[in-house]
Amino acid sequence: MTAKANLDIHAIPEEGTTSSHLPSGRWPHHDMLDLDNCRRPDIEVVLTLADRMREILDRRIPRVPALRGYTIVNLFYEPSTRTRVSFELAGKVLGADIISVSTNTSSVVKGESLIDTVRTLRAMRSDAVVMRHPMAGAPYLAAQHTDASIINAGDGAHAHPTQALLDLYTMHRSIGDIAGKKIVMVGDIAHSRVARSDLWGLTTMGAHVVVCGPPTLLALGMRVSDRPSHAENALPPVTIETNIDQAIEDADVVMALRLQSERQEGGLLPSLHEYATHYQVTAERLARAKPDHLLMHPGPKNEGIEIAADVAGGSHSIIEDQVTNGVAVRMALLYLLSGRIEPEEVTELST
Ligand code: NCD
C-alpha cells in the first residue's frame, strides 16, 4: 500500500495557503534538531501536513496505518508530561510502535553513555529516537552516531524545535499568515529553549518578534559551544523591550514563558513576587494588545507568576489548542522524517 493510501487524506479539502514550494519534492531533513536550518518552504510543508493530521486526530477513531512497522523510542533524560505524551500519541495515531524509556530505570543509571544508548536502540531497529536531554547539543552528538532519525525534544536551554513548530501551527490556524504580525514573548528568554527555537521559526516566517523580560533574563545571541559549525550563528534579530506595557502594545500574539528556575543561577531576580509585579501577563496589561490578540504559553504554567490565572483560562487563550496541535504537528513531522511520504505528495503539500 502506498503512503498516500495509508493516510487517506486526499478526500480532505486543502486548507491554508503556502507561498513557496520544494522543487525537488523531497523534504530535506533526516533529523529535527532545531529550526535554524529549516527554510520557509520546509516549515510550510509541516504546517500544511499538520492540517491533515489534525483532521485524522479529530476523527471518531483516530488511527491510520501510515507508520505501521516504524519504531520510535522516546528517550527522556529530563521530566516531561506534554511533550512525551504528545509524541506517544502522535506515533500511536499513525500506527507506529512507540516505546518510552525513562532514563532513571534504564542502563543510563549504570553509566551507559549516550552514544552507546542510541547505538543500542538502533541495533534493535529503532527508526527514530525522540530525545530530551539537560545538555545543549546532546541530540546533535546522538545524530552523529546513529542513522535513526533524531528528534530534539529539548536540549538544555538550547532548542525545542517541535514546540516551535506547534506554536507556528497554532498561530497559523488562528490568524493565517504570521508575516508582519507582532509576536511578543515575555519571561525568561535567556534560559528558554522554546524561545530560541520560536525565534528561528517566527523570524523565518516573517513575524516581528519582540522579547521582553528583566535584563538579567534576556541574554540573547547566546552561542552553543558544542556546535562548532554554528558557532558564528547569533540568534536572528528581534526587538528587545524590558518594559512589558510597551512590549505588549498592539501585539497580535503574546506568549508567556515560565521562569526556568532549574537552569538559573542565583541572583537573577530579586524575588518571585517582584518578578510577578513587573512581568506577569495580566488582563490589564493585555488590554494594550490588539483587541483580537491571542495568548499562548508552552506549558507547564506557573499561574500567579508569569501568567494570571484568569487570562490563562480566558477567551483569548489558545493554550489548550497548542497542546492538541502539538500531537498533529508531531504526527506530520514523524511522517516526514520516516521517508514514507512520496515526493509528489511533498510537492502537492508545498504548492
Ligand atoms: C517547555 C520545555 O520543557 O522546554 N515545555 C514544553 O516542552 N512544553 C517549557 C518549560 O519547561 O517551561
What does this structure look like?
The chain folds into two domains: 19-159 and 325-337, 3-Layer(aba) Sandwich (Rossmann fold); 161-322, Rossmann fold. 36% of the residues lie in helices and 13% in strands. The chain contains 13 helices and nine strands. The longest helix is centred in the last third of the chain and has 20 residues, at 319-338. The protein is globular. The model is unreliable at 1-19 and 222-232 (pLDDT under 50). Bound molecules: N-carbamoyl-L-aspartate. The site of N-carbamoyl-L-aspartate (NCD) has 12 residues, from helix 3 and helix 7.
Describe the SSE topology.
Layout: H1 3-7, H2 40-57, E1 71-76, H3 82-93, E2 97-102, H4 114-123, E3 128-133, H5 138-144, E4 149-155, H6 161-175, E5 182-186, H7 193-204, E6 208-212, E7 239-241, H8 244-248, E8 253-256, H9 272-279, H10 283-286, E9 294-296, H11 309-312, H12 319-338, H13 343-349
Helix pairs in contact: 2-6, 2-12, 3-12, 6-7, 6-12
The protein binds N-carbamoyl-L-aspartate.
- List bound small molecules: N-carbamoyl-L-aspartate
Number of helical stretches of at least 4 residues: 13
Strand content: 5-15%
Question: Over all CA atoms, what is the radius of gyration?
Answer: 20 Å
Which fold name fills CATH's third level, the topology of the largest domain? Rossmann fold
CATH class of the largest domain: Alpha Beta
Low-confidence stretches: 1-19, 222-232
Q: In the residues, how many domains can be counted?
A: 2
Query: How many distinct beta strands?
Result: 9
Secondary structure category: alpha/beta
Distance between the termini: 25 Å
Helix content: 25-40%
Please trace the helix and strand order, writing H or E for each element.
HHEHEHEHEHEHEEHEHHEHHH
Biggest sheet features: 5 strands, parallel
Note the overall shape: globular
